[in-house]
Structure formats: structure tokens, C-alpha cells
Design brief:
2 helices, elongated, 22 strands, mainly beta, DUF916 domain-containing protein, nine-stranded mixed β-sheet, Immunoglobulin-like, eleven-stranded mixed β-sheet, 45% strand
């Protein structure tokens, strides 16, 4: 026997079916959200206070960072590190590659580091971060701003865990309190002096001269290296190398000053070798030359200079056939 439904009853049943279907569709994403959250990597990050101790070259200290995997799955964590003092971060261990971000936060750099932090669920490991501040050691303790550490996971936008840490400079007398604020220079304080030199031909016919140069660094602004460049040079003359060798010139034809980063008040003398092609005459390669010194700090290529007047020096090149 066939059962016939009235139009009102059929409409009511159809509406109920649509309501149930809509409820099921709405419930699907809601059910998926907790599942996705459960799979998201989570970690607890613990860092104490960074204590920078006096050394023969400024201050240096190591910060232990403890990471615990709070997620359900085994996960490999990286560390995103915002240094507390500009230019202070050195490394995250001997086997931990680190790359700087192309941006600054209040003049400070952020690094992405990959120490060995593959952790099973509930497992804990430590990483050790090294910091160094090249400033004059004081007889009183100092304090700097906070640094930040994030545990990150590839493919996950939000950090798995975050910690902040304070920074104290131990005084030359061994004290940590009362601490005064540490104020770092924001501009470079470099100067240069140089002597005249004689251009002579090598066996190949190419011209060379060895210029004695001394550079001085008077402040504690964050920097990666100092460099020398040629503002004006005789026809065909170019900066060739340094002795000791500091590597090839950069894209601005600057040569790095040999050696490490500078301490305040440090002077460094070296030889700047200049050269010119063999087809240039003595009249071409002889004459006045203006040299300059500057400083770099990634990603700001050339640091602003506090006293530009002492950043250049004029020398004379004498050519002898």
C-alpha cells in the first residue's frame, strides 16, 4: 500500500532534513579544529638571566635555554633569537647553523638557529647561546633590555613556545647590583690616517704601491667590520688587497680592515696595496688619492658616522718607472 503525505507534512519533513544536513556540515569544521590544534607543535621554553662577565675584550656570557616538547608528536625545533644588545649574539653552539633576518628591532638583530633539538613528546633538551658585547669594562654593573627566544617549527606560523630574558653586565669588581642602564653608541666613530707611497712596476708591467694605513675605532656601536675605500684615485688606480689579506673587495669596492671587530679605543695598522694596469703611464697613476674608512652592520650596509670629518685622508702616490 502506498502512503501519501499531505503537502504541509512533506514540507515539514524536507525542512527538517535540510536543518540536519546543515548542522552536520557546520559541525565538521568545528570537529576538525580541535584535531588540528592537537597536532600543532607546542613547547615550553625556559631561559634564565644572561650574565655578561668582564673579559680582556669587553663582556661575554652564555645563556642556557631549556626546551621541552609539549606536543603529542616527535618534533624538530629551531630557535628564533632576538639579541638583547645590538651586535651581541655570537652563536647557538658549535654545530648550530644560524642565519640573520633582514630586519632590525630597535637596532637589534634576530637570528634563526638550528641546534640539535629533535625531541620526542615530553622530552627536554638544552641549547647554549653565546653573547659578546665589545665595550669598555666598567667598575659598576649595568643592565640591558630583554631578549626573546621562540621555539619554531617548519611549516607552523605561530611559535611553539616563547621566553624572554634579562641581561646584566657584571662589574670589574664582581658585582651585579645596583645596575645602571647600558647605553650603546648608535653611530660609528671611526678615523683613518695613511702615508704617501710610491707606484712601481712589477715584472708583469702592472703598477703597485704599498700604502701604510692606520684606522681607529673610538666607540662601541654594533658593527661586523671596518673597511677602507677609495673616494678619489688617480687614473686607473684601484684598491687591490690588504696585508694581512682580508679577502676580496665587496660590490662597493671596499676592502675589509684585517682582523676581528674593534674594541673602543683600538687602533690597527696594516698595508693597503693599490694597483693600476700596465698600459697606464707614470703621469696617469701618480697624484693625490683620497681614502676613507667606514663600518658595516648587517643588514644596514654602511653605518652612519658620528664625526665624518676624520673618516677621510689625502695621500700622494708618486710613480717611478
Amino acid at each position: 500500500m502506498q502512503t501519501l503525505l499531505s503537502r504541509p507534512l512533506a514540507g515539514a519533513l524536507a525542512a527538517a532534513a535540510l536543518t540536519l544536513a546543515g548542522a552536520a556540515a557546520a559541525a565538521a569544521p568545528a570537529a576538525a579544529a580541535p584535531a588540528a590544534a592537537a597536532l600543532e607543535a607546542r613547547a615550553s621554553v625556559q631561559a634564565g638571566r644572561l650574565i655578561l662577565d668582564p673579559t680582556d675584550r669587553g663582556y661575554r656570557g652564555t645563556l642556557p635555554v631549556t626546551v621541552t616538547n609539549r606536543g603529542r608528536a616527535s618534533t624538530s625545533f629551531s630557535l628564533k633569537i632576538l639579541e638583547p644588545v645590538a651586535g651581541s649574539f655570537r652563536d647557538a653552539g658549535p654545530d648550530a647553523p644560524c642565519l640573520p633576518y633582514d630586519e632590525l628591532t630597535d637596532g637589534r638583530r634576530t637570528f634563526d638557529c638550528s641546534p640539535s633539538l629533535y625531541l620526542r613528546s615530553g622530552e627536554t633538551k638544552q641549547a647554549f647561546l653565546t653573547f659578546e658585547v665589545l665595550t669598555t669594562v666598567r667598575s659598576y654593573p649595568m643592565r640591558a633590555g630583554q631578549g626573546t627566544i621562540e621555539a619554531t617549527v617548519a611549516g607552523q606560523q605561530s611559535p611553539a613556545g616563547t621566553a624572554t630574558f634579562g641581561t646584566l653586565f657584571r662589574s670589574s669588581k664582581g658585582k651585579l647590583r645596583p645596575a645602571r642602564p647600558y647605553v650603546q653608541d648608535a653611530q660609528a666613530k671611526a678615523s683613518i690616517s695613511a702615508g704617501d707611497a710610491t707606484m712601481t712596476r712589477a715584472e708583469t708591467g702592472r703598477w703597485f704601491a704599498r700604502v701604510p694605513v692606520t684606522v681607529r675605532w673610538s666607540g662601541d656601536a654594533a658593527h661586523d667590520n671596518l673597511w677602507v675605500g677609495g673616494v678619489t684615485l688617480p687614473n686607473g688606480v684601484q684598491l687591490w688587497t690588504t696585508e694581512p689579506d682580508s679577502g676580496p673587495a665587496d660590490w662597493l669596492e671596499h676592502l675589509a680592515v684585517p682582523g676581528k671587530r674593534f674594541m673602543p679605543g683600538e687602533e690597527r695598522s696594516f698595508t693597503l696595496v693599490v694597483s693600476a694596469p700596465a698600459d697606464r703611464s707614470a703621469a696617469d697613476v701618480g697624484g693625490p688619492a683620497t681614502l676613507e674608512v667606514g663600518a658595516t652592520f648587517w643588514p644596514t650596509y654602511v653605518l652612519p658616522e658620528a664625526t665624518p670629518a676624520d673618516n677621510t685622508v689625502v695621500i700622494h702616490l708618486t710613480a717611478v718607472e
